[in-house]
Structure formats: C-alpha cells, structure tokens
Design goal:
heterodimer; A: alpha/beta; four-stranded antiparallel β-sheet; 10 strands; globular; B: 2 domains; 15 helices; binds adenosine-5'-triphosphate; binds magnesium ion
C-alpha cells in the first residue's frame, strides 16, 4: 500500500506549552482515520501541522514523499494536494458560492474561468446544492455552507482530505446532510483524516480509530477493537462519557 | 365607519410625533422653545446678511460694484448685508489661480471629467463600472497633460496654478497616491519580516507624531537636499509629497483596522487551498478589509482635504491663499466675512459630500452583511 502521510516523532510547542508529544502516524492511500479525544488534547494542532497551518518543531512530517520544512515550494505543493475542512466553514463571505469554489482552481491551477466554473458546478451537484451557486455564503444554512466548503476543497482535486470537527458547529438537524456527503466521499475511496466525535460516522467509515490525550496518541485500533475492547483506561473513560452523554 | 380621511390620519401622526419628541416634559418644552428662538434669530440674521440685504453684482443704486467703496453697506453703514461682488471680481482666481485666462478651458475640462473619474470607485453596482474604472486610471495622465501642457498645448507652470485648482489637485492627487502607499504600509505593518515591519511602524508613527505644517516646511526645505543638483522640484510638488506621506500614514492605520477585522480562518482557508501570500492578500483579505475600512478612510480624506489649506504657509495659493490675497488688495480689503464664508462654503460642499458618502456606505455595509 502506498503511504501518503507519515508523521515520525512529531513534537510541537506553543512557547513552553508542549502540545504534541512524539506523534507517530501513518496514513495509507484510501484509508479513513478518525481521531477523537478530549478538548485541548491536540487533535486540531496535529492535523493543522499536516498542511503546515502550524509548524512543528521536532520530528518529521512527510506528505507524498515530500518533507514539510520551511521550504515554501514544498508547502505550496502539499497544500494543493491536501484539502482541509474547518469547523467554522471559513467560506469567503464576499464571494458567491460558485466563486468560492472556482477561486483556487483559477488562481492556483491557472485553469480557464469557464472550465473552473464547470468543475465547481459538478462538485456542487455532488454535495447536492447546485441551485445555490449564485448565492452568497451568508444566505445559506450552516449545513449548506459546510457542504460548499467541502466542494471547495474537492475542486482542487486533492488526494487527501483533512476534516477538523466538520459538524460540531452545526445544528443537530443539519449534521446528517454533511455526514452523508462525507460517507459518500469515503465510499468513493478518498483518503480521509477526520477529527470528530460523531461515533456513528466513525463506525460506518473508519478503518482506524485514534484516541489522543494531552498531546499523545494513546490508542490506535480498528473500530471494532476500539469500541468493544479499548485497552487504555483513559480511552474507556472517554468512550463512556461520549457514548452515554 | 371610516370617519378619518387619510389626511387627518397623517396630521395626527405628525401631531403625535411633535408631542412625543419635542414637548414630552416641561424641560423638553422649554428647550424646544429656546432652541426655536435661537434658530430663528440666527437664521434670520444670517439670511438677511447673506441674501436679502446683500449685494451681488450691483449695489442698491443699481451700479456695478467695481471696488469696495461701492458696496451698499459702505454707502449706507448698518443698512445692508454682505457684498458678494468681491467673489465675482475674483472668481477666476478662486477657481484657477493665475492660470492664463485664455487657457482656463483646460482646467474646466479637467474639472468636468473629475466626477467621471471617481464615480466608478464610489459605486460598486454602477452599470459599465469596468469602463469607468479604466477611465479612473487614464484620468491622472490626461489631467496632468491638460493642466501642465505638453505637445500641442502651451506649458503652464504650477506657479500659475491656484485657488480651487490647487486645493483639488493636492486633495485628489494626495489621496490617490496615498491609497496604494497606505495599503503597502498597512500590510507591511502586519508582516512577519521584522525589518519590513519596523520600517513601516517607524514611518507611520513618525508621520502621525508630526503636524502637517512641519512636514510641509520640511518637504519645502529638505526635499532639494535629497535630490541631485539641478533637479529643483517646484513648490507644488514639494507640498504634494508632504501631503501624500501624511495621508498615507493615516490611511494605513484605517486599513490596518480593516485587516484586523478579518478572522484568521479566512487566511487559513485560503492557504489550505494553496493560494500564496499575494493571492490570499489580493483575493481574500484586501477586498474584505477595504470594505470595512472605507468609512474611516473617507474620514481621513475629509481631514486631509481641509488640511490642504495649510499650504498657504509655504507660499502656495490654494483657495484660502487666494482669499487672503484678495483681502490684501486695496480695492477689496476688509470684506473678510464674505471671503471666509465663501471659502468655508466651498470646503463644506466637498467635505459634506464625502461625509454623506461615508454614511451611505455604512448603511449599505450593514444591509450587505445581514
Ligand atoms: N495558537 C495557540 N497558542 C497557544 N496555545 C494554543 C494555540 N492553539 C492551541 N493551543 C493550545 O493547545 C492545546 C491543543 O489545542 P487543539 O486546538 O489542538 O486541541 P483540540 O484537541 O483540537 O481541542 P478541541 O476539541 O477543543 O478542538 C490546547 O490546550 C490549546 O489551548
Ligand atoms: Mg480542535
């Protein structure tokens, strides 16, 4: 199997605060990995390091055989191949939905405008809101905005998608429409690294579960083992809290 | 049972409004009455002076006023108001300075096209806006050629420019040049490169810590020292440099306010899509930040427009300078009120226009974002 992401002994500090401690992780092509853990455990920081929204200080992060260093060329190349979906959607409010999606293909991939818009429309159809193309983000519901954000990432045709709690800012009735899109994406074979506390989703799509606490990966296992037979006490405690809330 | 006609309903509405807002309590009623008396007194006094009892071109005997002794108020002291004849007599100077009179059509041409050059920037929903914006970029070159001259047009040195021409030239050009400079300064101030950042901080804080007059003097005296021998920029250019630097520092701070209002997530989203620094800045950050910053930017523009009158101190004849020159003329001396009221009115028209535009934008921004 082809390895697309490789983290080796990754450490990160915010000033004196040690956020990531000796993180080892490898993601194979087509794998779906779900990351969970208590608030402040470093989940966001870890996936933000993978596309260099944060810089790590020690260890090695290799994406597609390219090591992440301060070299801007490498960073740009990696970002083109790694899509990211944020908790707060982060759509561009001054651009229409279709412009949000076609922006990066036009400016980063230097695609002709017409072609980029066609691609944008096809991804809007994929997330099932083609009729919203001309609206502005402020006119959409949270669930629709997050689906536009997913389409925006997909339009760059990435090999890997990173999701940072994509549904935790949504009203309950909108969570499903976003998860459905993500499940469909998983079925199509996309490589996904997802931070989420939606355990139903995890059980449906994950190949691997990762539990983080206080900057460390405490447990990594298949969903079956993870949910039915967790090894660490901290995982057990966390699962009992999250499953019985 | 519709006993109320529409009209009486309306009357009722006004009546209620007046009672509620002007006479709700005895303190309120008293203030209303005092205010009405005050407004009435001042208003009638001013209108009598400025219009009903004023001379325009002729005095009360019907003679054309050619010097101040013919003003009605100087013939019959205490009976008459303003003597606007000085404005008529000096009109060309107020508008064009000492521009050769047979060439002033060139200035008029530039004045007439100015609205076309800025309308595209002001209104984002204007039809054919793209073409107006193209014109905005052509206009400065066209205006410079028309005003200064060149192939086919006689050269009119800037020492002949004056009045509204100098005021508008400094105001509009100063703002126009300061705008790109201020964007660079504002971005530089947020840069991660320590040298760039400190340069911008020092520049902005230095300029903001110094009165414009000092900058004008400095530019006037020091600019030639920095330039090679023989290059001797004229006074107007020196003033323009000072005004531009001054304005750019203030505008940069207004823009920085806009930049700060952009959530971090916007930049991260753009970066995660692979956009580089300049693409992120141009496509994501600046459009949003400038929109937020326009009202404060317009405020700095109003300030600058008024401050251009300080150039009279380094020997330029802007509107105020021309006014003072008119008062120094023995034929017209002592008509202070007329000259200063007129100059105030001209400044007011431009500044009030900008202020209304700023209000309009604030309202528009509110509705756009909801
Ligand atoms: N820019 C920053 N500067 C300093 N500390 C930070 C910064 N960003 C995050 N932290 C700290 O690092 C720790 C890990 O943060 P992170 O956002 O990765 O946690 P998380 O696991 O994603 O939590 P959550 O579930 O709340 O999103 C937290 O204690 C947080 O306070
Ligand atoms: Mg997080």
């Amino acid at each position: 199997m082809e390895q697309v992401i490789q983290l080796e002994k990754v450490n990160k500090w915010y000033d004196d605060f040690h956020v990531l401690k000796d993180i080892d992780l490898s993601v194979q092509r087509g794998q779906k990995i779900v990351v969970c853990g208590p608030s402040g455990s470093g989940k966001s920081t870890m996936i933000r390091c993978i596309n260099r929204l944060e810089a790590h200080q020690k260890g090695q992060i290799v994406v597609h055989g390219t090591e992440l260093t301060n070299d801007l060329k490498n960073i740009d190349m990696i970002r083109k191949n790694v899509g990211m979906v944020f908790q707060q959607f982060n759509l561009f409010p001054h651009l229409s939905v279709i412009d949000n999606i076609s922006l990066a293909p036009i400016w980063v991939k230097k695609m002709p405008k017409k072609e980029a818009e066609d691609i944008a429309m096809s991804y809007l159809e994929k997330v099932k809101i083609p009729e919203q193309a001309q609206k502005f983000p402020g006119q959409l519901s949270g669930g629709q905005q997050q689906r536009v954000a997913i389409a925006r990432s997909l339009a760059m045709n990435p090999d890997i998608m990173l999701f940072d709690e994509p549904t935790s800012a949504l009203d309950p009735e909108m969570i499903k429409e976003v998860l459905d899109v993500m499940i469909q994406l998983a079925e199509e074979g996309m490589t996904m690294l997802v931070v989420t506390h939606e355990m139903g989703f995890a059980k449906t799509v994950a190949d691997q579960m990762i539990f983080m606490d206080e900057g460390r990966i405490i447990e990594q296992a298949t969903p079956d083992e993870f949910f039915n037979n967790p090894k660490s006490d901290r995982t057990k405690l966390f699962l009992s809290q999250i499953l019985n809330h | 049972m519709t006993t109320f006609s529409n009209q009486s309903l309306m009357r009722n509405k006004y009546y209620n409004w007046i009672i509620k807002n002007l006479f709700s309590s005895w303190v309120n009623s008293l203030m209303t009455v005092v205010a009405i008396i005050f407004i009435y007194e001042v208003g009638t006094f001013f209108l009598n002076w400025a219009i009903f009892g004023a001379d325009f071109r002729t005095n009360f005997q019907g003679e054309i006023i050619s010097d101040r002794t013919l003003c009605s108020k100087n013939i019959m002291p205490g009976e008459y108001g303003a003597c606007w004849a000085i404005i008529y007599a000096r009109w060309d100077q107020f508008m064009y300075g000492f521009y050769p009179i047979e060439q002033v059509w060139r200035v008029n041409f530039v004045y007439a096209l100015l609205p076309l050059a800025i309308i595209g920037i002001l209104f984002d929903k204007l039809p054919y806006r793209k073409y107006f914006i193209y014109f905005t970029f052509i206009y400065p070159f066209l205006a410079y050629f028309m005003l200064y001259g060149g192939p086919g047009l006689s050269v009119v040195g800037t020492n002949k420019w004056g009045g509204l021409l100098v005021t508008l030239f400094l105001g509009v050009t100063g703002i126009g040049l300061a705008f790109p400079l201020s964007i660079i300064l504002a971005l530089g101030r947020r840069s991660k490169m320590p040298i760039v950042k400190s340069l911008c901080v020092v520049f902005i804080e230095f300029i903001r810590g110094v009165p414009l007059i000092t900058l004008l003097f400095t530019a006037n005296v020091m600019l030639p020292l920095f330039l090679p021998d023989g290059v001797n920029p004229d006074n107007l250019l020196r003033a323009l440099v000072a005004v531009t630097l001054f304005q750019s520092a203030y505008m940069a701070e207004a823009i920085r306010g806009g930049l700060q209002a952009i959530p971090r997530g916007q930049i991260e989203a753009a970066q995660s899509l692979g956009l580089n620094y300049w693409q992120t800045t141009r496509k994501i950050i600046l459009p949003q930040a400038l929109k937020i910053a326009i009202p404060p930017i317009v405020n700095t523009c109003i300030g600058l427009f008024k401050d251009t009158s300080l150039v009279l101190i380094i020997g330029l004849f802007d509107l105020l300078g021309i006014g003072r020159a008119a008062l120094a003329d023995m034929t017209w001396t002592k008509l202070y009120y007329e000259v200063y009221v007129f100059i105030s009115l001209v400044f007011f028209i431009f500044c009030f226009g900008m202020s209304r535009y700023s209000l309009y934008l604030e309202k528009k921004l509110k509705t756009d974002n909801s």
